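Lab meeting, item 3. Inverse folding demo.
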């Protein structure tokens, strides 16, 4: 697939992250891949303006072609992720289209869960039970009685966890707890910093983003993390504002293989996000109103989305990263080995985790001592 194809399919990830970054000054973690699977599923049952908006948000107006791609994306991601689950809960009084049932089973290897939303305590317990079961008890009590009090028809849940199965490379005796991390120029915390000395990574200095960029491969060679580290201690906000206008793949094509001293903080990010407002802002408001058209899901009554709930988790620790030991070209371009450089992630940075150029996760580490 050509570069434009991958750049286009990942525009959704950048749009999503930019909107999230406006709403929070804390750590951020989201899985655009997980949400895209959810929206592509929903798209199969949408019609009219509702379908057009969803297709535009994921940048696939000819979305039927994308269904084929997603069917191969899901099992491929499962090789790298501990959990990637998409769950759909519909008020049981609606008559569900047999075509949509068949699509869910084929596309997600799952089923629609029919719930009595009128019985709020019972529906909360039932949905939380399904979520806990599907995530091997990793998520318990995701929904509350208060959050479900206004639910009438449709709840969508996306959960994504990164599998911690990478090879051991960072030496634990090299993990330093006293290196300062500049949350802000005037706010410093002590961070557990992992250190790799004189290892080979693909790096570059981006003028467009005023940042250092480093590609950190995971043990699975199709999976890697791109870290975009601002040159300025408080430069992350400026980078975030440029994401929509900078040719990110063009920047990554300039990565050079270098000997690097890498300082990377240990961190664990876990975030549950109500996505209704964010998805509305980036271009699909109709799905959340009484004008929604999901007649491909059910012809009985006015079906609208009440909740889109997304939970993502990633943990980066000594056993979770592998240094690039061989002199190989990076995923984007080829270049000779450069002299020793230092990448010290001691202030807020942006990270993107990719599998075959698909954005699995995108996030911000603002403070490594907070989830």
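The presenter then showed the designed sequence:
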């Amino acid at each position: 697939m050509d570069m434009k194809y991958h750049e286009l399919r990942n525009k959704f990830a950048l749009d999503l992250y930019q909107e999230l970054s406006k709403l929070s000054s804390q750590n951020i973690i989201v899985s655009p891949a997980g949400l895209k699977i959810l929206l592509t599923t929903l798209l199969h049952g949408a019609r009219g303006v509702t379908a057009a908006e969803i297709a535009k948000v994921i940048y696939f107006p000819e979305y039927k072609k994308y269904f084929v791609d997603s069917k191969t994306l899901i099992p491929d991601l499962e090789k790298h992720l501990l959990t990637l689950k998409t769950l759909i809960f519909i008020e049981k009084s609606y008559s569900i289209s047999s075509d949509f049932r068949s699509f869910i089973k084929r596309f997600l290897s799952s089923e629609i869960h029919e719930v009595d939303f009128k019985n709020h305590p019972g529906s909360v317990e039932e949905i939380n039970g399904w979520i806990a079961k599907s995530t091997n008890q990793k998520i318990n009590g995701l929904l509350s009685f208060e959050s479900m009090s206004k639910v009438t028809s449709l709840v969508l849940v996306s959960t994504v966890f990164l599998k911690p199965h990478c090879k051991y490379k960072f030496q634990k005796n090299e993990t330093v707890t006293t290196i300062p991390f500049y949350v802000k120029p005037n706010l410093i915390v002590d961070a557990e910093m992992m250190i790799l000395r004189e290892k080979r990574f693909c790096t570059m200095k981006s003028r467009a983003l005023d940042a250092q960029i480093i590609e950190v491969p995971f043990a699975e060679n199709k999976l890697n993390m791109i870290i975009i580290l601002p040159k300025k201690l408080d430069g992350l906000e400026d980078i975030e504002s440029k994401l929509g206008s900078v040719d990110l793949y063009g920047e990554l094509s300039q990565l050079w293989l270098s000997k690097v001293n890498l300082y990377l903080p240990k961190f664990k990010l876990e975030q549950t996000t109500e996505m209704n407002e964010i998805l509305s802002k980036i271009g699909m408001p109709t799905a959340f109103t009484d004008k929604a058209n999901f007649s491909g899901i059910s012809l009985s009554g006015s079906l609208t989305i009440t909740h889109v709930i997304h939970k993502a988790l990633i943990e980066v620790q000594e056993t979770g990263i592998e240094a690039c030991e061989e002199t190989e070209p990076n995923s984007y371009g080829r270049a000779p080995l450069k002299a020793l450089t230092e990448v010290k992630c001691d202030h807020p940075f942006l990270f993107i985790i990719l599998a075959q150029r698909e954005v699995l996760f995108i996030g911000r580490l603002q403070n490594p001592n907070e989830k």
